[in-house]
Amino acid sequence: MNEKNQFRELWELFWTFAKMGVMTFGGGMAMLPILQREVVDNKDWATEEELTDYYAIGQCTPGIIAVNTATFIGQKRGGVSGGIAATLGLVFPSVVIISILAGLISNFADLAWVKNAFAGIQVCVCVLIFNAVLKLLKKSVVDKRTAVIFAAVLLGGLFLKLSPVWFVVAAAAAGIILKNLEAKRA
Amino acid sequence: MIYLRLFWEFFKTGLFAVGGGMATLPFLQAIGESTGWYTYTDLMNMLAVSESTPGPIGINMATYVGFTAAGIPGAVVATLGEITPSIIVILIVAAVLHSFRNNPYVDRAFYGLRPASTGLIGAACAAVVLEVLTSVQLVAGEGGLVKAPVLGGGSLFNVPGLLLAAVLIVLTNFAPKKITGLHPIVFIGLSAAVGVAFGFAGA
Fold this sequence. Notes:
The complex is a heterodimer. Helix content of chain A is about 85%, strand content about 0%. Chain A contains 7 helices and no strands. Chain A starts with a helix and ends with a helix. Chain B has helices at about 1-15, 25-35, 40-50, 55-95, 95-100, 105-135, 160-175, 175-180, 185-195; strands at about 135-140, 145-150. The model of chain B has no long low-confidence stretch (mean pLDDT about 90). The interface between A and B is large, with 103 and 111 residues.
């Protein structure tokens, strides 16, 4: 591939993922149907099975699921630089839109009605986070041991002034130890 | 230098937050606490805007927090910091795809990671609920490890807020599917209108 073609290819990755970034409302799960249409049906960059695989791995690797999936598809299409181009494309609209909005909001933050509106919105955000926890609980707490891990991290996270990093590392170790013991007993 | 600090804090968030956008919330709370760049309440507003605009929520929040800390360059640096570990990890995983999928240790680690991630988000949830709906705050002493509840000023409960929360919980969980399936932006808009109509901030 000559240099000009390679540039065009990277640009196409960037641009396609930028468009998908604008169309994704809510992230994560909301993105899958859009990926299916663009990446599988329109561009033929991956098969349905590959996309499902990438998505599953994107969920069980650290970071934002949509970002992980974008890197995966980009690297398949154009190697390391392809992975980077796709990911930068995906986040580009967010950076532009949020920077503009954040600037606007900080200008109007002192108006009485804006303060009242955000006081109402804060209540809603509490409920939205609460609902997210309920949904995650069903998927992550599957037996007594996972219930204990959940409760311990919940209390620790709330009452200890510790970086979440420590809980994540300890929980991964606990998962490996518990499952290893189980495998030995079986 | 603030940009280096931003990049590092978000690099850690991207590397250790497992389970998507909402999983970054406890990390963002911890960053706010340790740097003083923003309060819990600021973070709630950022989350609301991030849910209501296009783009993955986790990326929108990183951009917003970065912007709050250091303007547009901060927005760019925070976002790049958050996606850098993803890019590195995925490029490595892609190279060893087959053995990654079949590695029992990955499964085992995630058996522990999933409930822990839920627990961290649950703790973040409890902290913001206390912040928004009560005057109770959890505060650690200077250099202390344990946070204790402290009563702030004003009334103990935010009664109008609790009523709105109860209505929203019913609407988002127990109403007919036509209502529970609505996009969060609808409920955010509704809550903004209620906040303005009833003077929620007392402003």
